[in-house]
Amino acid sequence: MEHRLLDYFLAVAEELHFTKAADKLGITQPTLSHQIRLLEHEVGTPLFHRSGKRIHLTQPGMILMEHARRVIHELEQARFEIGELAGLKRGRLRIGCSGNHLITEALISFHRQHPGIDLNVIELATDETHDGLLGNRLDLGVVFLPLEDEQLVSLPLYDEELALIVSKHHPLAGNVSVQLTKLADLPLVLFQSKFLVRQIIDAACAAQGLILKPVMELSTMESQVQMVGHNVGGTVLPLSYARTLRNPDIAVIPFAEPVPRKKVGLVYRKNMYLDHTIQAFITHLLAEN
Fold this sequence. Notes:
Structural class: alpha/beta
Shape: globular
């Protein structure tokens, strides 16, 4: 079985759409369909249920996907080990991150030291990073801890604190700090409850006997900051993100103790081969924090 056919199969299995998979692979859809038919002929069974434009993996398809991912991973691990002969002049890291702001400074300094290393950092929810690590689609993850899984190693980095962000015209804008209880008196624009940052806020407020009722719930930090700039309400976001903002229409106010916070950590698969590139980034990240 050709390695190329496995690449084609995994692309279709992940996208469950021939046209999207073909675009991802840089080939035409008819060519991809032909290659999948060749693979199905080789294994002697259909790998996908086809119903109009919708497709689903068959049972044999699910079995092949599991094994194909392991085969691709083992080939990549072999390339990593062989590539160590070139030191850190070349390499690639795939990092799932709960927010690029969590490691912005570390990324900049690592790139300056090792410009030949390609850094592919993807903002993902914690469960997406978890699945990416176990599925060999990511090398490392930077997430909020704890992330309980016996297949993963977790290394604490630092505590991420939350901060209040208000319009520059807000009465609190000049404050050095603010008590968490003040949130009860403010119109707020917050994440929806499924987001971890919102869960941290709600838990901290519940400990103070507060229940927040935001006037608006949004899914991105950027949109929340925009609403704050228009004086729709205040918001609560990670302090590391707030410090990157260069918006003259807002003010960032740290919370007084007890500050809502959560541990940020580095995670990776326990049985993964740690090549020099991965080891160098882990060492760098730990040293930066």
